[in-house]
Design goal:
The chain is mainly β. It has a single domain (16-120), classed as Rieske [2Fe-2S] iron-sulphur domain (Rieske Iron-sulfur Protein), CATH 2.102.10.10. It is built from no helices and nine strands. It has strands at residues 16-19, 27-35, 38-47, 50-55, 79-81, 88-90, 96-98, 111-114, 117-120. The mean pLDDT is 95. Bound molecules: FE2/S2 (inorganic) cluster. FE2/S2 (inorganic) cluster (FES) is lined by residues 58, 60-61, 63, 82, 84-85, 87, 99-100. It comes from Caulobacter segnis. It holds the Pfam family Rieske. Keywords: 2Fe-2S, Iron, Iron-sulfur, Metal-binding. Residues 15-120 form the Rieske domain.
Length: 121
């Protein structure tokens, strides 16, 4: 997946992703768009008052994080887990705290909550 900001499949700011209530707290939800040959995949994580978004591309090898299970969080819902090689990332800032890419971070995908909906910021 292209991680650059000029990816033509990247949804425009203001695009509504879903209702806030569709994402449990703590919980996560993934989104995908295609434009020609380009694809954009991102996900949001909600935990208490925090709602953050990241590209669905692991900084280790570029694989999607959720894998076939469709899950982005650990069973404890306290960290983001990459299904590829089990890297763990902090929900708050995407920093890798365990696994094969120490010092790396998930690629931020800014989102916001407006009128009860999660939108691309
Ligand atoms: S691709 Fe995510 S840990 Fe390797």
């Amino acid at each position: 997946m292209r991680t650059d900001p000029d990816n033509p499949a990247r949804p425009a700011p203001g695009t509504v992703l879903c209702a806030l209530d569709e994402v449990p707290s703590p919980g996560s939800k993934g989104f995908r768009w295609r434009e020609g040959d380009a694809m954009f995949a991102g996900f949001v994580v909600r935990k208490d008052d925090l709602v953050v978004g990241y590209l669905d591309s692991c900084p280790h090898a570029g694989w999607p994080l959720a894998g076939f299970a469709g899950r982005y969080l650990t069973r404890e819902n306290d960290l983001i887990l990459c299904a590829g090689h089990a890297a763990l990332f902090k929900i708050e800032d995407g920093a890798c705290v365990a696994g094969p890419c120490p010092g790396d971070k998930l690629f931020a995908w800014p989102v916001a909550v407006r009128d009860g909906q999660i939108v691309v910021a």
